[in-house]
Design goal:
The chain is α/β, with parallel strands linked by helices and about 425 residues long. Helix content is about 40%, strand content about 15%. It is built from 13 helices and 16 strands. It has helices spanning about 5-10, 50, 60-70, 85-95, 110-130, 145-150, 180-190, 215-230, 280-285, 305-320, 320-340, 375-385, 405-420; strands at about 25-30, 35, 40-45, 100-105, 135-140, 170, 195-200, 205, 210-215, 230-235, 260-265, 275-280, 350-355, 355-360, 385-390, 395-400. The strands form four sheets. It has a seven-stranded mixed β-sheet with strand order 4-12-11-10-7-5-6, sandwiched between helices. Strands 1-2-3-15 form a four-stranded mixed β-sheet. A three-stranded antiparallel β-sheet has the order 13-14-16, with helices on one face. Helix 6 links the parallel strand 5 (about 135-140) and strand 6. Helix 7 packs parallel to helix 8 and helix 11 (about 320-340) runs parallel beside helix 13 (about 405-420). The longest helix is centred in the last third of the chain and has 21 residues, at about 320-340. Bound molecules: pyridoxal-5'-phosphate. Pyridoxal-5'-phosphate (PLP) binds near residues 236 and 239.
Length: about 425
């Protein structure tokens, strides 16, 4: 039996209807921007393996840091102990995060990073004896699949089955220059009720919604309203973090600073599952008391795993290198050139670019739902061409590893142009 056949026998894949899904390609090797399956077919990874892998697959610098760390100290419980990689990583992260971020709490994935921010918001007010038990979020946001994160995510068939069991979350539209006044008014009305502990959002780009982008100046205004009404802002930078928007964090485009930030995905360059939630000093102090019950009783077995911390430190060093900073600028410029060239195509409804993120909406009268027929036609076309792109409904986006060369980008762009002609 092939790996793909054995996989079908044993494994249950994420977001997959197994009754209608055939054999999945079994990837046996990754190097740089390429992956290879068991039949030797090569794939160009144009979405950085779900946005985690900006420095390429099997990166030697990160692999070496992981190996060295494993030989020194693999893991130690973070309850009651600390260790050098965690101290060094926190010091590093706090030096690149917005200046009001003062404390880090580690976990294993984007959903837990969000879970921690939401729980900390709720408990902060509980500790103070204030009744703020609800959350504000954007329509069509995505914050993960655990219960708190799922509650904060937009309602769709992903979360419908659990609607009765979720946290109280109110959703507001994503702001544009057109609806700005109405959105700000709606936000202010909600905030005035003093029932809300936090407002959670993906800053500037809603990834899973199809790289939906909105202006930083409006988010700044929303921050100010939240501050006035003492509701915390939670910037979920799980997707946007570590250079994807052209700055280290999407929040670097803002004048205001968030109270909390959620980081994961590219944190370890796609090597070790790892996440961090950062906090302002004010929030941290809301848990200080002589009474132990005011502490934040949350943790994960692998919290601040030393190997993950070492991988993250290596990944941040790579991000800060002159080479990758230039790569981010170069890819952005290439995207702008491609945008100019493609936007007049009759099948293109709209395009958008921020940092290394390029998105294109296709004009169609086909089914444009999340896993609709158009999406499947496109996905299969790209896979057949050896390019990994996962369209969201009628949106095709590119989020290439920063090491992608202009020649490789050209292959992705051309395949995308060709796809427009077949749909
Ligand atoms: C992917 C993602 C998450 C969830 O991360 P997981 O590691 O898949 O749990 C949360 N928020 C955003 C913005 C994401 O893109």
């Amino acid at each position: 039996m092939t790996l793909s056949q054995k996989d079908q026998q044993y494994n249950w894949h994420p977001y997959t209807q197994h009754q209608t899904t055939g054999l999945l390609p079994a990837i046996v090797k990754g190097e740089g921007v390429y992956l290879w399956d068991e039949n030797g077919k090569q794939y160009l990874d144009a979405i950085s393996s779900w946005w985690v892998n900006p420095f390429g697959h099997s990166n030697k610098v990160i692999a070496d840091a992981i190996y060295q760390q494993l030989m020194q100290l693999d893991h130690v419980l973070f309850g009651g102990f600390t260790h050098e990689p965690a101290v060094m990583l926190s010091e590093k992260l706090l030096s690149i995060l917005p200046s009001n971020q003062k404390k880090l709490f580690y976990s294993d994935n984007g959903s837990t990073a969000v879970e921690i921010a939401i729980k900390a918001s709720l408990q902060y007010f509980y500790n103070k004896g204030e009744k703020r038990t609800k959350i504000i979020a954007f329509e069509n946001g995505f914050h993960g699949d655990t219960f708190g994160a799922m509650a904060a995510s937009g309602i769709s068939f992903f979360t419908e089955a659990f609607q009765g069991s979720l946290l109280d979350v109110v959703r507001i539209p994503v702001p544009t220059f057109e609806n700005k006044k109405a959105v700000l008014e709606q936000l202010e009305t909600l905030l005035a009720s003093t029932e809300y502990a936090a407002f959670i959002f993906e800053p500037l780009v809603q990834g899973a919604a199809g790289m939906v982008m909105y202006p930083a100046v409006i988010l700044d205004e929303m921050f100010l309203l939240c501050k006035q009404h003492k509701t915390f802002t939670i910037a979920d930078e799980v997707m946007t973090g570590f250079g994807k928007t052209g700055k280290t964090f999407a929040c670097d485009y803002l004048i205001q600073q968030p109270d909390m930030m959620c980081l994961s995905k590219a944190l370890t360059g796609g090597t070790i599952p790892m996440a961090a939630t950062s906090f302002s000093q004010e929030i941290f102090e809301g848990f200080l008391a002589t009474d132990v019950s005011k502490a934040f009783f949350h943790g994960h077995t692998f919290t601040a795993n030393p190997t993950g911390c070492a991988a993250a430190l290596a990944a941040i060093t790579l991000l800060e290198s002159y080479e990758n900073q230039q790569n981010i600028k170069r890819i952005h410029e290439q995207h702008l050139l491609f945008q100019e060239r493609i936007q007049s195509h009759p099948r293109v409804a709209t395009t958008r670019v921020l940092g290394v993120i390029f998105a294109l909406e296709i004009t169609t009268n086909q089914d444009t739902s999340y896993y609709g027929s158009l999406r499947n036609t496109l996905y299969n076309f790209f896979i057949a061409q050896g390019i990994i792109l996962r369209p969201v409904g009628n949106v095709v986006y590119i989020l290439p590893p920063y090491i992608t060369t202009n020649e490789q980008l050209e292959i992705i762009y051309n395949t995308l142009s060709n796809a427009l002609d077949i749909v």
